[in-house]
Amino acid sequence: MRVHLEERVAVAAPPEAVFAAVADFQAQSEWVVLTRVTADGGPPRVGERLVAETKVGGVGFSDPMEVTSFQPPHRIDVRHLGRVVRGTGTFLVEPAPGGAWFVWVEDVDLPLGRVGRLGFVVVGPAFRLLLRRSLRRFARRVESHPHLRKHPG
Hints:
Elements lengths: L1 E10 L3 H9 L11 E5 L9 E8 L2 E13 L3 E7 L4 E11 L2 E11 L3 H32 L1 H4 L4
Antiparallel strand pairs: 1-7, 2-3, 3-4, 4-5, 5-6, 6-7
């Protein structure tokens, strides 16, 4: 079964600056709740490999991903390659009055059939809460750091 999750946050910064902050994969560790992200290094690009390690109380999982589309300053797509998380993720940056919308979309296949669907009934609300919290942290980070708000280039 595939689950669609979509959350958004308004960011008081130019869309290009929001996109640059989103595309800084290593820095995602600073705003994605309970997660450490590592990347290949170098400039963000199609084919780049990332690993998001999420842990709660010493228990966690790794989420390896590959960037499948990189379209500055609007969109990044990834494919989840792990055992636990499979499917796709998308980061969208859309112009908005006074800044931009940052939209995080996940289309993931639940593991374990019926057990996975039942588990998501329990875990899904907590995941959405953490996703919303991460987006708020992202917005605060970009808005409170002048060097992140500047138009890149």
